[in-house]
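WARN no homologs supplied; continuing
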Amino acid sequence: MQSCLVQRLFAGPLDIVGDVHGEIDPLKSLLRHLGYAKDGSHADGRRLVFVGDLTDRGPDSPAVVDLVRRLVESGRAQCVLGNHDLNILLNHKKHDNGWFYGEEVTEDGQVVPQVLADDTVRKQVLEFFRTLPIAIERADLRIVHASWCDDMIALARESSDVIALYDQHHNLIEQSFPGLGIEEVDQGLKHQNDNPVKRLTSGPEERAAQPIVASGKIRFEQRVNWWNDYQGRFCVFGHYSILDGQPRGNGSTFCVDYGVGKRWTERRAGVTQDYSLKLAAFRWPEQVVVFDEGMDEPTDSFNATRREP
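OK structure emitted
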């Protein structure tokens, strides 16, 4: 177990990898294009950082977790906890994580091709996720899965156990409800926005003007573009693969999730190359994005809108 849920980020040049979501082949391809050997070493002394959401949706979540775990344990990578990883750690069964429980996942009546976990894999995944911090930082850079909030980061600094921190604030929020007549949707928003673990791994939310269908569920909440008001050290995050025309950041932030988690939908449609949904890495300090197919995106396109599937 680590001493604190907010850890010190590696010194030196970094390659910050977006949400992988079980896509082992794009991950291996990306690492090759970035110049990493199979053991995770780099000729220029670069090191890897993963923004979380290693699992779900893609074909081989166990292989992704195993690869990242070996890189982390060798000191050649760091990784923060994402909301999909957190759901597994908390034993929250969701639409996307049936693979972990040995169950097939279906979309539109069709089975999503995935490697299913057995007891050995489940044990290894849980042990690794328990070691992950929520955020990592150094003097010039911050990395978190979904959102940086100073108040919530301060609470995370005081804890070394993500499950205990989550449970503590979940219970405090629940205790605030009796007799207040708070609607169910607003109760959900309090759990999302006031629990530091939820806020940092899945971001702030607000009431939606219209119901939204997400991950097979009707939702009455929507995500908040927190980075529009962010001021502070440069922050790289994932989580937000589609933002309906919003820019990738505000000059002090950058989102490195390019939606590879839904690439299986392109494969199902017969696409075998030139995918629109990609896995990417943000190179620091160069501030260049490299994609799993080897292309890169220069700094003058950082404020371009996200690709949509």
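The longest helix spans residues 162-175.
OK
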